[in-house]
Amino acid sequence: MQFQYENAYDVKERIRSKRAAILPIGAVEAHGPHLPLGTDNVLAERLAAKLAERTDSYLLPTLPYGQVWSLRSFPGSLSVSNEALVLLLCDIGESLHRQGFRVFAMVNGHLGNGTALKEAARRLAESVPELKVYHFFYPGSKDTIARVRESPPVHGAYFHACEIETSYMLYLAGELVDMDKAICDIPNIGDEADCTPTPWETFTETAVLGDATLATKEKGEAIVEASLAVMAEMVNRAKERASG
Amino acid sequence: MQFQYENAYDVKERIRSKRAAILPIGAVEAHGPHLPLGTDNVLAERLAAKLAERTDSYLLPTLPYGQVWSLRSFPGSLSVSNEALVLLLCDIGESLHRQGFRVFAMVNGHLGNGTALKEAARRLAESVPELKVYHFFYPGSKDTIARVRESPPVHGAYFHACEIETSYMLYLAGELVDMDKAICDIPNIGDEADCTPTPWETFTETAVLGDATLATKEKGEAIVEASLAVMAEMVNRAKERASG
Amino acid sequence: MQFQYENAYDVKERIRSKRAAILPIGAVEAHGPHLPLGTDNVLAERLAAKLAERTDSYLLPTLPYGQVWSLRSFPGSLSVSNEALVLLLCDIGESLHRQGFRVFAMVNGHLGNGTALKEAARRLAESVPELKVYHFFYPGSKDTIARVRESPPVHGAYFHACEIETSYMLYLAGELVDMDKAICDIPNIGDEADCTPTPWETFTETAVLGDATLATKEKGEAIVEASLAVMAEMVNRAKERASG
Amino acid sequence: MQFQYENAYDVKERIRSKRAAILPIGAVEAHGPHLPLGTDNVLAERLAAKLAERTDSYLLPTLPYGQVWSLRSFPGSLSVSNEALVLLLCDIGESLHRQGFRVFAMVNGHLGNGTALKEAARRLAESVPELKVYHFFYPGSKDTIARVRESPPVHGAYFHACEIETSYMLYLAGELVDMDKAICDIPNIGDEADCTPTPWETFTETAVLGDATLATKEKGEAIVEASLAVMAEMVNRAKERASG
Amino acid sequence: MQFQYENAYDVKERIRSKRAAILPIGAVEAHGPHLPLGTDNVLAERLAAKLAERTDSYLLPTLPYGQVWSLRSFPGSLSVSNEALVLLLCDIGESLHRQGFRVFAMVNGHLGNGTALKEAARRLAESVPELKVYHFFYPGSKDTIARVRESPPVHGAYFHACEIETSYMLYLAGELVDMDKAICDIPNIGDEADCTPTPWETFTETAVLGDATLATKEKGEAIVEASLAVMAEMVNRAKERASG
Amino acid sequence: MQFQYENAYDVKERIRSKRAAILPIGAVEAHGPHLPLGTDNVLAERLAAKLAERTDSYLLPTLPYGQVWSLRSFPGSLSVSNEALVLLLCDIGESLHRQGFRVFAMVNGHLGNGTALKEAARRLAESVPELKVYHFFYPGSKDTIARVRESPPVHGAYFHACEIETSYMLYLAGELVDMDKAICDIPNIGDEADCTPTPWETFTETAVLGDATLATKEKGEAIVEASLAVMAEMVNRAKERASG
C-alpha cells in the first residue's frame, strides 16, 4: 500500500490496477503545549493511510513542509512559500500521470496550504487533464463538527490546536498528545484579521484557538470518519470513471 | 531528537542549545528488483538520524521527493524539478535561521539532488550568511569504498542499486532488502552518457548498475560509518564555531 | 477625491494629509441575464467611492480585470492570472508608499481575486512594512446578510448574480440592473466542487447562483452600509495610527 | 459598445459579429500644473471610444496603471513594472481569443508603456497567432504634428504636458484642462538622457516639456483625427481579414 | 586594453585606475548578400575598441548573441530573448561593480538589443547605483547621417545593411564587405509595421533596407567618428565624476 | 567555417549540408600570474575551432561569460548566474534548430559552467528533441591525463591554472602564457569544500591549484588531441544519424 516500499518490478502492473495515489501534506508548526510541531503531518499521514486503504490506492510519502505564514514567528514553525509548494506539487502530479496514475488526491492537514494546493490542482487540470486531482482538507465534516463540539468556534475558518484538532489527534495519534498540558485559550480575533496581514502573535500567545481540554477521542473519531467517508466516495468514483 | 515531535513550548530553548538541524532528502526511484522505490529516502533518513544523534542536533522530517531525470521513465520513479527543490530548500533554510538555528545539514540519499542542493546552499550563503549550510552525499567514503568493493565501478560518478548501495541498505535497513532477488547487471556506459542527455533506459533495463549480489551488511557498515564520522566532525566543528 | 483628477502641483500636500488610498478592483465576468459583465467593477468602484468619502481618502482608478478561472468559459468573461495581479498590486502598493501614502485599501468586488489580494498584501507587508494594506471583500456583512436574505445560500462561500449581489447592484447602480430579466436558478453544488477544479459550467448554465428575483434595493443598502461602516472604521483607525 | 455593460446572454453573438476589442491603457503620472495625473488614461479612453465607434468594435474597460519609471519621483506618479504589464496584457489577449475575438487593439496614452505593449504583442503572436494584436500610440500623426506645431519639439521621442499633449486634452477632455495654469518650460535634454537611466527630475522641475500655452483644441483635433483615421483603417482591414 | 588578456595579478590595480569597462554587444543576423551574419558583432567590437582606447578603459569580450525577433526567420539569424539578455547583462554589471569598476558602457551594434539594454541599465541603477551604466547605439550620429546620406531612409528608426550600415563596415571592417554583391532594395514599410508584430519577411526578401551600393568608407568614417566623440566625452566625464 | 563570417544568401544551403554547430563557451576568471583572465575563452575557442574543422561543422562565436561563483572575489573574475546562462543557451539551441541545424555541441572551457550546460541540454531535449545537444568538458581525457601528469591532482574534480590547464594553453595558445611567472602552489583542500559553499580564497591566494611549472606543450597536445578525437567521433556519428 505504501508506494515507496514497492519495488520497480512489481509496481508497474499495480499502478495500472490501483490508478489512484494519495499524498499527505502537512507542516511543521507551533501547536500549543500539548501537541507536537508535526501535528499536521501526523494527521495528514494517518488520514491518508486510511483513505488509501479504503480505496485500494497507493499512499505516497508525506510532504512535511507547508506554508506557515501566520504562525512563522512562533517557536518551532517552519514555513515554505506558496510558489515552492505549487511547483513541487505540479511536478509530482505530472510524474504520477506519466507513471500511469489517473487520480491524485492530496490529503492536507494544514489550512495554510490550501491556496497552494488549489493553485497546483488548477495548473494540473491544464497540463494533464486526464489526471483527476483532489485537494482535501477535512471535506464533509461541517455538520458533524457542529453536532459534537462543546465550545464555540473562535473564527469562521481557522481551527487550531483546539477542541477539534486535538480530538483528531486523540483519535489518530493519541500517543502524541499530552492532555495534561491541554489548555483553554479563547482569543478575540477581530474582523481586521481577515482584511490585512495578521500574524497570529497579534491575538494569541499560546497558538491554541479555543478549549483544547474538551477534546476527546470520540469527537475526533466521529468527525474524521465522516470526512473519510466523503473522501473515499469521491476517490472511488474517480477511480471508476478512470477505468470506465 | 526528532524536531517535529517537540512542542512549541519546549523547543525554543532547545534550539538555542542544539543549534543544528539535519534534513534528510531522498527520492522515489526505481532501484531494481531487490530494493524499494524509497531506498534513497530510507538511507537519507536513517543516516541523518545517526548524524543527529552523534552531534546532538535536531532531525527534521524527510523531504521524500527528488530530481530523478535520468530514471524518470522507469516504473515507480517520481521526479521533481531542480527549480522546485531549490526554492523549497531555500525557504526551509531561511525558516531555520529565523528560528535560531545556525547549522543546516542536508543529508542527501540521491545523487540527482546534488545540483539543487549545491545551488540552494549557495543562495543561502547570500541570504542568511550566518547559517552554515552543508549538503552531504556520503562524504569521505571514497577510500573505504575502494577498499571493500569486490566488483569494479561501472561509472566514475554513478552507483545505483549495486554492491555499494545495497550494502548501505543491508546495514541501515536490512528488513527492506530482498537479497534473493538481487542481480548482477553490468551495463556498458559510454563516454557519451556524460556529454548529452542520456536517460538510463539507454543502457540498462534493470536500473541495477553492477553486482548487487556481492552486497553485505559489513561493507555497508564500514562505508557508512566512515562517512558518518566525517559528517559528524564537520557538524560538530560548525556548532562550536556558532557558539564560540 | 479622485486621485487621477488631481494635478501634480497640488497633490503632494494633500497626500500628506489624506494618507490613505482606496483601490477598487473587480472583473469582467458573466453575471446572468439581468446584470452587466462589469458588475464587480461597478460595485467595487461605487463602494470604494463611498469609503473614500467617509474616510477622507483618495480614490484610485479602478483595476477592472480579475481572476475569473471558474467562469472563464462563460460568454463575456475575461480572466487574468493570480501571478499578473500580484505583481501589479505590489507595484502599485510600493508606488503609493513612495508617494507618501501610509494606508492602502483594496476594495474587491470579485471573490476570485481574493487569493491574489491576500498574497499581494503579505508581500507588501515585507517590502514596505510602513504601509498598512487592506483587502476588503464586504467585511462585516455576514450578520446583516443572514438577517435580510429570503432565499438560502447555495454554497458556503460563493454568492453570484443572486439575491445578494443583485441587491448590491440595486442599491449602488440600479440603472444597470434589468429586474425583468432576473431569474431564479438554484444549482446543486456538491462537496466535490470544493475539492477539485470545478468550472461553473459543471453545475450552472445561467451563472446565477440562487434567486435573483428576490433582490431589493433595501436589502442591498442594509448590507452595503453595514460593511461600509466596518471598512471605514478600520481605515480611519489606520489613518490615525499613521499620523500618531 | 462598452463591453462591460453588456450581459452574458447577449454578448456571445455580438462578439462573433464585432470581432474586435479595443483596450485603452494609460497611466497615473505628473502632468504639470494644468493637466490631471490621469491625463494619459483620459486620452486613451476617449480615443479608444472613438476608435471603437468608427470600427464597430467593443470598448474594453481602461487599464489605468502604466510604467512610469522616468517620472516616478514626481508627486502623484504611480508606476508598475514592464513585467506585470506584459503578463496582464497577455492574459487579457488570450482571454479575448478564447471568447471569440480576432482583433485586439491596445490604444496607449503613455509612451512609457510602449516596451511592455510591444513585448506583449509579440508573445501573443506566438501563443494565439489567430489574434491580430495592435499597440497604438498615436500612429500616423507625425506629419500633422509637424504641420500644426508652433514650438519646436524638445526631444526626438518624448512629448509631455506640452503644446501637443495639452492640445489632445483640449480636444478630447477640455473640461479637465486649466489653461490658466499652463506654462512654458523648455528643458535642455542632452544626448546622455538617451544613453543612461535618466529620471526626468534631472532636467525638469515642472514635468512640462515645452510650451503648453500654445495648445489649442484645433491642433488637438487635427492630430487626433489624423491618427484615428489611420488606426480605424488598420482595425477595419484586420476585421475584414478575420471574417474573410 | 583587452580585459581578458590581463592576468589576475596585474589587473586589480589597473581596474582602480581605469574605472571604466566597455562591453561590445551585437548579434548574428542576416545582412543581405554583401555583409556577414556577424556584422553587428564586428561593428560593436571595433567601435568599442576605439572607445576603450580613447578613454583609457578596458575592452570586455564581445557578447555576440542578440535579440533578433524581426529577422529570426532569415537564413543564418540566431535570436535570444530579452529576458536572457537582461539577466546576463545585470550579472555582468554587478560583477564589474564588485571588481571596482564605476563606469559600464555597453556599445550596441544591433537595434533589436535596445529594449534589453535599457531595461538592464535601469535595473543596475537600482541594484548598484554607484555604477554609471551607458547603453550606446551610435549616439550623436543623427546630424552627420542626415548630412552624408544620398538615399532617403526607408523607416524612422530602422537602418539595416543599407547605405549607412554598409558604410560603417567599410570604415571599420572593409575586409568583410563584398561591394560587388551590394544591392539596392527599397521596401515599402507601412505604418502598420510599427503597430503590430511584423517579421521583416513581410516587406523584404533581401534584408537590405535601402541602397547599399551608395555606401563608402568616407561616409562611415564621418558618422562613426562623430558618434565616437560623443561617446568618449560621456565616458570620460563619468570617469572623472567617479574619481572626483 | 566561422558561422558569423558567412552571409545570409550562402548560408542556408550550407547549414543543410553541415548540420552541426559548435559553440565555444568559457569565462573571464583569475588564472594566476602566468595565464590571462580569458584562458577558458581562449581554450574553448581554439578547441572548438579544431573540432569544427575535423567534423566539417560551423563554428559559432564564443560566449565569453560564465558562472564563476568560486573565484568571483579574485581580481578580474566576472560571474554570471546559472539562470542567465541556461536561458541564453536554450534560446541559442532553439534558434539553431529553427535554422536547420540538427547537432549542437557546446565546447566548454570552464568547469563552473557544467551545471548550466547540463540543464540547458536537458531542457532542449524536451523542447527540440530533434536537436542532438552535447556539452563537452574535455571528455575522454582521463587516461591521458593520468599518464602524462607529473604532479598529483589536488582535488578529485577541480584543475585550474595548474600543470594540466597550463599545458592546454601551451599547446593551443602558447603566445598567451608567461612561463616565467608560472608557480607551484599546492593547496590543502579539505573534504568540507565539497560539502558547503567554499569560495576559493578559503584555500588559495594564487588561484593556481598545483604545479604550473611542470606544464609542457607536449602534455597539452597529448591530452587535447585525445579529447578532440573523442568529441569528433561523437559529433560525426550524430551528424550521420541526422542525415540517415
Structural account:
The structure is a homohexamer of 244-residue chains. The first copy, chain A, is built from seven helices and six strands; from the N terminus they run αβαβαβαβααββα. Chain A is an alpha/beta fold. Chain A has a single domain (3-243), classed as Creatininase (Rossmann fold, 3-Layer(aba) Sandwich). In chain A, the strands form two sheets. The first copy, chain A, has a four-stranded parallel beta sheet, sandwiched between helices. In chain A, strands 5-6 form a two-stranded antiparallel ribbon. In chain A, helix 2 crosses helix 6 and helix 6 (163-173) crosses helix 7. Chain A starts with 7 loop residues before the first helix and ends with a helix. The relative contact order of chain A is 0.18. The model of chain A has no long low-confidence stretch (mean pLDDT 97). The interface between A and B is large, with 53 and 54 residues.
